[in-house]
Structures are given as C-alpha cells and as structure tokens.
Specification:
Distance between the termini: 55 Å
CATH architecture of the largest domain: Orthogonal Bundle
Number of strands: 7
CATH class of the largest domain: Mainly Alpha
Shape: globular
Oligomer: single chain
Number of domains: 3
Number of helices: 15
Helix content: 40-55%
Order of helices and strands: EEEHEHEHHHHHHHHHEEHHHH
Strand order of the largest sheet: 3-2-1-4-5
Strand content: 5-15%
Length: 410
C-alpha cells in the first residue's frame, strides 16, 4: 500500500502532436502544468518540470493509454527509472463527467488523469510498453488491413463480373483463386472468348491449376457463355481494363499477405509460446491473442485475466438482491477471439460427425444438461479456454488434450 503523501501525481493527456501534463499533490492541489511536443527531444523537459516539485516526494506518472500515442514517452520514463501507471481512458472519462460542471480541454483532461492516479493508485497497472508485444500487434494490424483490402477488391471484382458474365459464379468455386484470376485477366469479358476452342481453354486452365481443371470445366464455361449471351456495350475496353487492374491488385495483395504472415511466423518464434499446439489455433490466431493480451505477467491471477477478456460475469445487486450478468466490459476484440475459439472447439465434422475436441464438446453438453442454454454453455467453454490459455502463456507449455472418462467414450 502506497502512502499517498510520499508522492506527487503527474497526469498526462496524450495526443499525436503534443502531450499535456498536470502535476498535483496528495491533497489534490495543482502544482504545475506543461505541454511538450510528442518527440523524444522534448521528453526531458517533462522530467525537469516535475523535478521542481518533487524534492522530497517521488513522482508517479499516469498515462492515458500508454500503448498508443504515449508509447514512446512511456518507454522514456521507464528507462529513466520513473514509476509509470497505465490509466484506462474510461476511468478518466468517468472522472471528467462526475464534476457538477463539465468541461473539455487538454489541461482538464490531464487533471482528470492525475485525479484517477491519486484515487486509484494501488489498483492501476504498471505501464509495460514492451517492444515485442507492440511490434507483433503492429504486424497483426498490418495483416488485418491487407485482408480488409482484399475483401474490398473481391467485392469490386464481383461488381464488374456480374455485368460481363451472367453466370460467372458458376465458373469457379472461388473467384480469386490463382486459376480464376488468370481466367479473368485473359478473358475479362465474353468477347475475348470468341473463337476460343475447348482444348485451348482447357490447356490454359490446366497450366495455372496444376492440372486440376479438366476439359469438362472448359466446356462448362463455354456452354454457360453461349447460353447467357452477351451485349455489345460502349467503353468495353475501359471495363476490361478495370477487371484486369483489379486482378493485378488482388495478386499483389495476396503476395504481400504471404510476406506479412511469414514475418508474423518468424516473430512468433521469439516468444517461445506453444499456443499453436491447441486445435483451432494457428499462427495468425496465436499472434492475435498475444497482440491483445500483451505480457501475461501483468495479470497476477486468472480471474483478473478473465475480467480483462470480458468473459467473467459481473455482479449487479442492490439491497442484497441481484445476480451475475454477462459482462459487456473488457477487451472486446479479445472476447471475439475466445468466442470463435469456443465455437470451433464444440464443432463436429460434417460427414463423420467426429468432434474437433471431444473434451470441450462433452463439457458443453454437460453444461446444457445442468440447465444452461446454448449461449450460457458456450460462455462456460470460453471461460475454460481462458483458464487454459492463461496457463499456457504463463508457463509456456503445450496444450495436452485430457482423456475423457471411459463411460463418456462408450
């Protein structure tokens, strides 16, 4: 437990261009204020300004989200042996709107951060701006941006093709495979297939599909083109150009996606985690988990980790009456990852009916037999996953599938 009179409190409102800091003492008296540019050469000015008020006290810095615009400042302060706390923006927001008369400017926001720092000093986590976790998060964000761009390009290709080929979605199962893209580039509209023989088209398809596309596929495409018919529209050359441009862009994005995923795989080896040993978790999902969780050691126990993920229920009660309800707090992106993992764990194969993970499926069904509905039982699976992944990260261990009791396997 910290003795609050032994410290001064520096609340910092972070922005892209500048940071504003307000200094208060344990009696909530404002001692000073300073605004600095968000560049390393300016950070020393903050230390010098704080030292003027900390002759017999130890300064504690509170940064509103130390992993965004304030990351460089947080690293600088930690490297200079300063105490740095990460202040959740929701806490400073609650502090700001709790005043009888609210206002909004950088200095007041920094004062709210300082007040949170003073009032919740023993509850706030230390800021741990590790380069490794930040960098893997940047890689994951880069991959997500490429995937979103590919989705947009694929939609654009659909838009162009439906005007050129009425039955284009019957040509290939997926329109952006290597074979399909090659076809759209060579034949962006039906006029390019005029006088093309079945054997010639089949040979073209076989070259890019590793002989997976047969003469039957070529015949089917030509038959569909003939039965659908075509129209001679103006500016067809320009529309053909658009299709080919989209195809080139999709190819480039796919190549870039492979490069980024290779970089993610290479960096994941530096963490020495074994998350991929759990069925349903590939390298990208493991990287996504680590990017959202950060250093697992900042959670002293699994219950606090569960609250961070938003999986743990929240108690709502008054006058001794109430019940636990589903939480809408926590990291919602991380919650989504655990949700989809839980769904995968209880899935069964379409043809064989074999479960992906028999232990989780049995647990899910048991919770339903105990009276929980399907969404509630799925949350139970999520909580179990939280416990397991917490242990795997904490101890850097592999996932081991537990054996079901014999009576469950009969």
């Amino acid at each position: 437990m910290n003795k609050k009179q032994n410290h001064i409190y520096v609340g910092i409102d972070l922005h892209k261009e500048t940071h504003t800091a307000v200094i208060i003492n344990c009696w909530n008296e404002k001692l000073g204020e300073i605004t600095i540019d968000n560049r390393p050469s300016e950070f020393k000015k903050l230390l010098e300004a704080v030292r003027k008020h900390s002759k017999s006290t130890t300064p504690i810095y509170g940064l509103e989200n130390a992993y965004g615009y304030g990351r460089n400042l947080a690293i600088f302060l930690v490297e200079n042996k300063q105490i740095v706390k990460d202040v959740n923006p929701s806490l400073s927001y609650a502090q700001r709107i709790s005043a009888p008369t609210t206002k909004k400017d950088d200095a007041y926001d920094a004062l709210c951060v300082a007040n949170v720092l003073l009032n919740k000093l023993d509850e706030l986590p230390d800021a741990c701006p590790h380069d490794s976790f930040w960098t893997i998060a940047q890689l994951v964000n880069r991959r997500d941006a490429i995937v979103q761009s590919l989705v947009m390009l694929k939609n654009q290709l659909h838009e162009q093709l439906k005007h050129a080929y009425a039955s284009y979605n019957k040509y290939f199962t997926v329109i952006d495979t290597k074979t399909a893209l090659n076809f759209w580039e060579l034949y962006p509209s039906p006029r390019h297939l005029k006088n093309v023989k079945v054997e010639d088209l089949a040979e073209t398809l076989r070259k890019t599909s590793n002989n997976n596309c047969s003469t039957n596929r070529a015949q089917k495409i030509l038959d569909l083109v003939n039965s659908d018919g075509s129209m001679n529209l103006d500016y067809q050359d320009t529309r053909d150009f658009i299709v080919r441009s989209i195809v080139r862009d999709i190819r480039h994005k796919k190549q870039e996606l492979e490069i980024v995923e290779e970089e993610i795989e290479k960096m994941m080896k530096t963490f020495d985690y074994k998350l991929e040993t759990m069925p349903g978790i590939n390298t990208v999902t493991a990287a996504r988990l680590i990017a959202e969780i950060g250093d697992i050691n900042r959670f002293p126990n699994v219950d606090k980790f569960a609250r961070f993920t938003g999986v743990a229920p929240v108690l709502f009660s008054s006058a001794g009456k109430g019940k636990e309800q589903k939480s809408k707090q926590g990291n919602r992106r991380l919650y989504g990852i655990f949700y989809f993992l839980a769904v995968q764990m209880i899935q069964t194969a379409w043809k064989s009916g074999k479960p992906r993970n028999a232990v989780f499926l049995e647990y899910y069904q048991r919770k339903q037999s105990e009276g929980k509905n399907k969404p509630q039982a799925l949350v139970c699976v999520m909580r179990r996953l939280v416990n397991i992944i917490y242990g795997m990260l904490k101890n850097k261990t592999e996932y081991r599938i537990p054996e079901l009791p014999k009576e469950k396997t009969m």
